[in-house]
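Q: My labmate handed me this sequence with no annotations at all. I'd like to see what the chain might look like in three dimensions before we decide whether it's worth expressing. Could you predict it?
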Amino acid sequence: MKRNVEREAIVQRKFQALEPAFNERSRRIWAAAEARSLGYGGIATVSRATGISDKTIRAGLAELEKGVQPSKR
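A: Here is what I predict for the chain of 73 residues:
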């Protein structure tokens, strides 16, 4: 797949704006939701743009598939 630098830059700007508000879980869930919204190549795009590992994004996707439950904190 051809790398889409513009798409990566958009994801990066979103991440930078939201990052201070994220905890580990919300960061993973957001990255997964973003990757899913991008479709094919989304995991790689989000990983490159944010530095979040593809393994972490895949874990977030699995959580999304199960349904996100509210945090108990």
